[in-house]
């Protein structure tokens, strides 16, 4: 089924000049970039985006990290895009991520894990709407 998912290239990856290498992984796996922009999150935006994690021990340092440098937010489209993107990314902790995943190859730690990908259709819809207006997502024929 054709789906859209939401992706973040996180501060650690942007700082290390890995944007192109990461987008290449998506394109090599038949995910299409249908919206993209670079943003520097405010603390308020980061807190709102990660509201579900408020109160967890990793929440405060996560917010500080997410505002520490620009990020690249994208909408990716493709067959089973949500599951496919998560496969390409690997699990949260890079030490446990499958070989050849983005996190296994590039992530620095469980926090500085280079990328984010939506984990469900509901979060994909919420996360896309958080960053993109409908007219910023490109139509293709
Ligand atoms: P992500 O799963 O994309 O969204 C939540 C983020 O919180 C996660 O990526 C990590 O960046 C961070 N995170 C999750 N669990 C931990 C943890 N145990 N320690 C530090 N950071 C974490």
UniProtKB/TrEMBL annotation:
It catalyses: a ribonucleoside 5'-diphosphate + ATP = a ribonucleoside 5'-triphosphate + ADP; a 2'-deoxyribonucleoside 5'-diphosphate + ATP = a 2'-deoxyribonucleoside 5'-triphosphate + ADP. Residues 2-139 form the Nucleoside diphosphate kinase-like domain. Its EC number is 2.7.4.6. CDD domains: NDPk_I (cd04413). GO terms for biological process: CTP biosynthetic process; GTP biosynthetic process; UTP biosynthetic process. Its cofactor is Mg(2+). ATP binds at residues 10, 58, 86, 92, 103, 113. One of its GO terms (molecular function) is nucleoside diphosphate kinase activity. The active site is at residue 116. Homotetramer. Major role in the synthesis of nucleoside triphosphates other than ATP. The ATP gamma phosphate is transferred to the NDP beta phosphate via a ping-pong mechanism, using a phosphorylated active-site intermediate. NCBIfam families: PRK00668.1. This is Nucleoside diphosphate kinase. It comes from Thiomicrorhabdus sediminis.
């Amino acid at each position: 089924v054709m789906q859209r998912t939401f992706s973040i290239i996180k501060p650690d990856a942007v700082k290390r000049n890995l944007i192109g290498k990461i987008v290449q992984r998506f394109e090599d796996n038949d995910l299409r970039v249908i919206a993209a922009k670079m943003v520097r999150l405010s603390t308020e935006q980061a807190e709102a985006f990660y509201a579900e994690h408020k109160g967890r021990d990793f929440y405060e340092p996560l917010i500080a990290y997410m505002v520490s440098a620009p990020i690249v937010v994208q909408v990716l489209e493709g067959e089973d895009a949500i599951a496919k993107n998560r496969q390409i990314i690997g699990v949260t902790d890079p030490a446990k991520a499958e070989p050849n995943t983005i996190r296994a190859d590039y992530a620095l730690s469980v926090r500085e894990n280079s990328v984010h990908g939506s984990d469900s259709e509901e979060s994909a819809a919420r996360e896309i709407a958080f960053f993109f207006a409908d007219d910023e997502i490109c139509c293709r024929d």
